[in-house]
Amino acid sequence: MSRTHPSGTRPSGTEQAWAALGGDPALLPRVETVGRGAPGGPGGPLPARLPVMELARSTVAACSLAAAELAARRTARPTPRVRVDDGAVATAFTSERHLRIDGRAPTAFAPLSRFWRTADGWVRTHANYPHHRARLLGTLGLPADAPDAAALDAVAASFAGRRGGEIEETVYAAGGLAVAARTPEKWAAGPQGVAVRDTPLVGRERLDDAPARGSAPLTGEPLLPLAGVRVLDLTRVIAGPVATRTLALLGADVLRIDAPGLPESADAHSDTGFGKRSVDLDLGGRGGAAVFDELLGGADVVVTGYRPGALERFGLTPESLAARRPGLVIGRLSAWGRGPWQERRGFDSLVQVATGIAAAEAPDGPEDPPGALPAQALDHGTGYLLAAGVLRALTEQHEEGGSRLLTLSLARTAAWLLDELPSGPRPGDRSGAPEPYEPEKWLTETDGPLGRLRHALPPVGFDGSPADWSRPPGPLGSDEPVWLGAG
Prior knowledge:
Blueprint: H1 13-20, E1 31-34, H2 52-75, E2 82-85, H3 86-93, H4 95-98, E3 100-101, E4 115-118, E5 121-125, H5 130-138, H6 148-160, H7 164-173, E6 178-180, H8 184-189, H9 191-197, E7 203-206, E8 230-234, H10 239-249, E9 253-258, H11 266-272, E10 276-280, H12 286-296, E11 301-304, H13 318-324, E12 329-334, H14 348-355, H15 357-360, H16 377-400, E13 404-409, H17 410-419, E14 443-448, E15 451-456
Parallel strand pairs: 1-2, 8-9, 8-11, 9-10, 11-12, 12-13
Antiparallel strand pairs: 3-15, 4-5, 5-6, 7-13, 14-15
Helix pairs in contact: 1-2, 2-3, 2-16, 10-16, 14-17, 16-17
């Protein structure tokens, strides 16, 4: 990933991402970037010390090129040109901040999702979901319904006298989420950092020799490279839903599956549920398992976003899925990837803290807490990479067949950001200063079952592609577990 050009420079982020996806480098000149500034730095629409803007534009560019490539394959025409706009990309990467639901702004983080001073540094907790809040408070002997003010005081007093590593392990053992802040060097030298570093940015495996599936040629406008493709979406929060939202934009019939009673943010779904339908399904029950089997029999793609092992108890390993539906494309992502932490829950904000991103973005004051990226870029970037991986796998299947497995993690994307992406202007870059960033240009309003939504427009596109999703999100679990056009 970090090989250099003969000039001694690192490949651009788009070149790196496209190579990780197995893409043909001859297609890269089809990509044009507008409004481009430096890969990182204090200016631009996503100001940061790390090259966040490079990560953002690169993942969107790779996804857009993968979509254009598949459209060309299905139309038997030349690959359309791809145009990536930094303003559109930055707005999409902060889409949850721009979202308004009938004028209301969602709450990004609950009061107990924050940094805390410890005896030896800092720790960050995540308690947006009620069950995670209850487990965190349970480690202090507090009831789940403790008022926020009392809970804040109790957590602060307890953590101030304890070491971050001990807090991390205690809260994890109770099923909660807390991560001690590390430097990039400390994370890279630790066992999980080593395990992640030894994995590719996009893991790509062929699981069998299932024959290639035929697909109807595409006609008309807009070009929908995934027309007729059926996607089972077993993802939550941001990264996975961003991937499947992108697949829906490009024409796929995406059916999101959630477990009844498992809390999910309705506000997050208002942002990432565009283009999809949503059902509740108990995979542990006989009836739910039977319905899933029937849906799987008509699926082309399955995308999962749970930690390794979470779905295996339902028999949903990649190998078993491919055996039951030969020719399937399976995309899976998790927070930490494989390694000692693989069974731990995780979120973008926690991965930033563990991997040293928060330390790299910390303010200069000695008493200031660690910093954060200007967007949940690990979530969004990994989501677009996963969507790109699915698109490329489908393209490869047209000629080669075979069930395919794609594996990504937020922690591996973090390593890419920290160690591999170019962090300064490239020699010969004549793009000049970034154009003024006006997010309103990339926002629109849509009326639907959840009310009037102000939301970000999709940044993924190519000549002839759709400019917006075909349908707004509906309430979670409100649809029937059937494929469109079935029966």
